[in-house]
Amino acid sequence: MKLALIGYGQAGGKIVDEFVRYDEEVGGGFVNAAIAVNTATADLRGIEHVDEDDRVLIGQSRVKGHGVGADNDLGAAVTEADIDEIQAAIDRVPVHDLDAFLIVAGLGGGTGSGGAPVLATHLKRLYTEPVYGLGVLPGTDEGGIYTLNAARSFQTFVREVDNLLVFDNDAWRRTGESVGAGFDRTNREIVERFGLLFAAGEVDDTGAVAESVVDSSEIINTLSGGGVSSIGYATEAVDRGDDGLLSRLTRSDDGDHAISSTNRMASVIRKATLGRLTLPCEPSSADRALVVASGPPAALNRKGIERGRSWLEEETGSMEVRGGDYPRLGTDRVGSIVLLSGVTDVPRIEQLQEVAVEAKHTTATIEANSQDGFETLVDTGGELDALF
Ligand code: GDP
């Protein structure tokens, strides 16, 4: 599917940069346009693959290119003030050839956390194409302010977009890894999963298995209805025959080889669903799902895909489980992307919601106390007045 990617803030910009690189590498064809927006000059300088003209610095009059720190109210305010500068870059997007917008942001910081939901509201007002979000949740070790920012941003972002795809840094942390190396690795993991899904909807329909290739409308239908989405991904090596040919083991429709190929395909779909998801959640709480089987055309075993899809139908209890292929040449692995859309049983989000509610109470208590304090001051002032 053809996307206009808008990376907001440092994480958003870096991930969009990586999407552009990946799209070129795999010949995906899903990047219709790529824009990076930031309040910090230095962060925009770190971007390599997004065109220089499409790197937009906002908030200069307020923060002079130094960023907004972790102040997401300021991130939202400068976005509102400079929305025309962002729109000028979006005006260059070839919208006639566009399936959707995707706004990418880390939700724990300031610029992306505050600005991405504001931009989503703006785009929804102007365009008829769906506006999706890709939100990155901070690690729990990053500190309270990041969690609080993410809790607040998440609530607004999910309301404003047509679907919020989520990646939880916390679930993908590795001990002993530096923050920078960790981000580079997770950015590749993010892009491989979401990029494969978007690229799958872009395959031309001239291949041998054209009738079963995933269409961008299937991705859009799975995402429509809103809410939060998570993605699972798994691959397995395809055995090669003694002569090194893949087709010997996979093309036949009968015999042991076909059975093993069916089993392998079905098992890779189960592994994708039950393994580590971009946002850990209970698959049975998904409202809709999409299975994309990828790999060399000869290894895309029809029976296996159908079996995997039926299994996912049972697992999610959903009648809306779509399926399709993404034939890829030049790989000797079969893989499966499983998109779980409208998931509701998500421990990390419940935790964020609790943080947001607690913060609201704390703010209300502080406001009430300061009001009491003010009244006491006024009263005391009155008493003091009476003394003189
Ligand atoms: P902003 O520039 O003010 O929007 O803030 P950042 O994007 O720098 O940081 C926001 C959050 O995104 C942080 O709390 C991190 O959890 C996360 N983050 C920052 N950089 C990256 C990155 O390159 N990859 C990933 N996966 N997460 C990042």
Strand order, largest beta sheet: 3-2-1-4-5-6-7-10-8-9
**How would you classify the quaternary structure?**
single chain
- Mean pLDDT across all amino acids: 89
- Using only C-alpha atoms, the radius of gyration works out to 24 Å
Compact summary:
With 388 residues, this protein is of the alpha/beta class.
Structure in words:
This protein has 388 residues and is α/β, with parallel strands linked by helices. It is 48% helix and 18% strand. It contains 13 helices and 10 strands. Helix 6 packs parallel to helix 7. Guanosine-5'-diphosphate binds next to helix 1, helix 6 and helix 8.
Question: How are the SSEs placed, and which strands pair?
Answer:
Blueprint: E1 3-8, H1 9-26, E2 31-38, H2 41-45, E3 55-57, H3 60-63, H4 72-81, H5 83-90, E4 100-106, H6 111-126, E5 131-137, H7 144-160, E6 163-168, H8 179-200, H9 216-223, E7 228-237, H10 247-250, H11 255-274, E8 288-295, H12 302-316, E9 321-327, E10 333-341, H13 347-387
Parallel strand pairs: 1-2, 1-4, 2-3, 4-5, 5-6, 6-7, 8-9
Antiparallel strand pairs: 7-10, 8-10
Helix pairs in contact: 1-6, 1-8, 4-6, 6-7, 7-13, 11-12
The structure holds guanosine-5'-diphosphate (GDP).
Guanosine-5'-diphosphate binds next to helix 1, helix 6 and helix 8.
